[in-house]
Amino acid sequence: MKELALKYGCNPNQKPSRVYMEEGELPIEVLNGRPGYINLLDALNSWQLVKELKAATGMAAAASFKHVSPAGAAVGTPLSDTLRKIYFVDDVKIPLSPIATAYARARGADRMSSFGDFIALSDTCDVATATLIKREVSDGVIAPDYTPEALEMLKEKRNGTYCVIKIDPAYRPDPIERKQVFGVTFEQGRNEIDLTGDNLFKNVPTDNKNFTEEAKRDLKIALITLKYTQSNSVCYVKDGQAIGIGAGQQSRIHCTRLAGNKADIWWLRQCPKVLALPFKEGIRRADRDNTIDVYIGDEYEDVLREGTWQNFFTEKPEPLTAEEKKAWIAKNTNVCLGSDAFFPFGDNIERAHKSGVQYIAQAGGSVRDDHVVETCNKYGIAMAFTGIRLFHH
User: Fold this and answer.
1) Does residue 67 carry a catalytic annotation?
2) Domain segments of the chain: what residues?
3) Active-site option among 51, 54, 66, 238
4) Catalytic entry in 39, 232, 332, 348
5) Which CATH class is domain 24-167?
6) From its phi and psi, is residue 24 left (phi > 0), alpha (psi between -120 and 50) or beta?
7) Does the domain at residues 277-319 carry the CATH identifier 1.10.287?
8) How far apart are alpha carbons 92 and 131 in whole angstroms?
9) Among 5, 231, 308, 391, which residue is least crowded by beta carbons within 10 Å?
10) Whole-model pTM over 0.90
11) pLDDT, tens digit (0-9, with 9 covering 90-100), for 97-125
């Protein structure tokens, strides 16, 4: 197929709309549903991300995409009982395959942002993965293949309209890419920078120069994720998954704060007091996610006030105090942080340190690099200057 007609573009008034190949055939096959313009932007960007994660780590990888940036990305490292619980997969009776585990991590890191996502899988979608996808609110999935059983399960989702896309994993695009803005054609070489090797960690200006193998893996995950995140962007990673992504901010420190706040929420959801919240039977996962998010935040009274808490809980929980939150967040350690360009000031490091960051990979090249290095040294953080900028627009 050389061309695929779409219902409309980014918005309903933007017609006509289509995707097409000037030469050759489209590398995708729509197995079910009717993808939209934004669906396909998410699908093609997220596929590149998981393909690179698989190449860099040798592990099954998944991504959860929303509005052309990842809400989550992960590889299939094993899940603890706590993560199984906060990702709502502790009730799944069948064993989770590596690709299913990768998806559970990618979806679970920031469940608020992942609501209504487009999913990318590096490996064949199996029954375990389809089981997890089928129960979540999602727009579609792209993968290199599907088992017959998994495909039938996904075809039943959303009353038979769920978008299922198969992509040719051998497809290689032209090395020159183009797009139009206001009738003007932009042309550039594709960003084919290799982020799989350990040469990323050769320039280490900090006193601490020790990067564990797990840290190197997680920093590669951070950088590859940033490669497909709208800039400016910053990504926190721990144990093989992004736990906080700050995308599209004009200020670097705002990226670091946004992503750090998301990382803190991910960690706070594992706090025993949060895990023990007495939710009513039958409450929907989306409502539970929203309630936990408010309970953890500064507006906790919105779910604890009289007449409201009864909608969610069997008994009124005690608030999670600022002191309790600070003490729990302080227990999060060995977090990795990647940035798509240099940190201009040490304030980014100060904020990262509050969320347990111990390892950093960033481009370097700021006139204040010395201040950034000095701030890392104050906290014993190991930081590599990659010399690589990863802007994505």
Assistant:
1) yes
2) 24-167, 194-268+329-385, 277-319
3) 66
4) 232
5) alpha beta
6) left
7) yes
8) 8
9) 5
10) yes
11) 999 999 999 999 999 999 999 999 999 99
